[in-house]
Amino acid sequence: MADYKIEVYSKNGKCLGDIRHLTQGLKWTEQRNAAETVSFRMDLARYEEYVKKTGMRPYDFMDAGTTDIRIVRNGKDRIGAHLIKIDFSPNDPSVDIELSFTGYLNYFKDAYVDAAYNNTSQGDIAWGVINQYQNKQDGDFGIRRGEFTSLGKSPRQRNQTRANVKDFLVRLSNVIDGPDFQFTPDKKFNTFDAMGNYRPDIRLVYPKNVAGFGFERSVDSLANYVIGIGSGNGDDAIVATATDPFSRQALYRREKVVTFSSVEKESTLQENTNGILEMLKDVRELPSFTLSDGVLDLNDVGLGDTIYAEMNGYIMFEHIHGFYRIEKIEVTVDENDAEEVKLTFDNLNVDNIISQQE
């Protein structure tokens, strides 16, 4: 059983208090190269009573758009997130408030910059667009560069007009050999060639130490002929294509048109188009395992780690054995801090990932 704190931080970075004892239904998620989520509910009367003792008013203590929190697990900062929604609902004789938080990546979902980078490491490009936006008037969210920087296998070019910063970062991560990125709870921005660690010592086997699972094979989003449309209008727009003949022969020709409206260079457009093909050209399998409290120490295992996973009992599961990368972590925490953990895996390019993590 873990020990949780939920620390509340003001816009200027001051810790105002720990509200874990007021909360119920705590849930949090992490996903590689995506924004974290946190949610919980509180009794409004108990919350106002607590805030009154601090000498503050409720909306000064916490409010949508200004408040950050840190989820602290067993003394270690796990997630930093920004309050985006407070939902009030009656629960006689009091009122419940449901609070929703999102990770710091979503600071930049409404942020735009003109990117001009040539012969630049991908880590420098990723930090560069963040730094550009934060240098705008009133645009500084307090994100600072961390100690980890992805150099990548070769320098890249990125020249885009009015690029959305969040989309830019996600697309940069999606190109072949693109970086992973991370916003730490204390607002440091890191990039990695391959985030996480190779952990052959951790073995999860259904049904031995795995309580439940989810498993699907799907071609719902499959594409093996991708057409990328870049900057420009109509016939003047730049175009790139990417295809996989083996996938076409096995699974029929399946086309997808993807728009990258801010991309101005053909080489950058081709990189983005190749990245989409790499993600979509095969039958998609995303096994997930549900673990009971105490099976895995989440202070020891993290997002991006590559571990051994296996499913037994049926012929259709027999190919699920080997090393898989943790793509997503979803945690439900009860009032006693007992956890139910769901891990979602992927094995896309897993051998290449392991070589970078070892």
Structure, explained:
The protein is of the alpha+beta class and 358 residues long. The chain has 7 helices and 23 strands. Strands 1, 2, 3, 4, 5, 6, 7, 13, 14, 20, 21, 22 and 23 form a 13-stranded mixed β-sheet that branches. Strands 9-12-11 form a 3-stranded mixed β-sheet, covered by helices on one side. A 3-stranded mixed β-sheet has the order 17-16-18, covered by helices on one side. Helix 3 (122-134) packs antiparallel against helix 4 (165-174). The radius of gyration is 22 Å and the shape is globular.
Structure summary:
By secondary structure, the chain is α+β, with helices and mostly antiparallel strands.
Give the tally of β-strands: 23
Describe the global form. Answer: globular
What would you report as the Rg, rounded to the nearest angstrom?
22 Å
**Strand composition percent:** 35-45%
N to C succession of SSEs: EEEEHHEEEEHEEHEEEEEEEHEHEEEEEH
Mean pLDDT: 95
Instruction: Summarize the main sheet.
Output: 13 strands, mixed
Helicity level: 10-25%
Total count of helical runs of at least 4 residues: 7
Unreliable spans are: none
Structural class of the secondary elements? Answer: alpha+beta
Q: State the separation between the terminal residues, measured CA to CA.
A: 30 Å
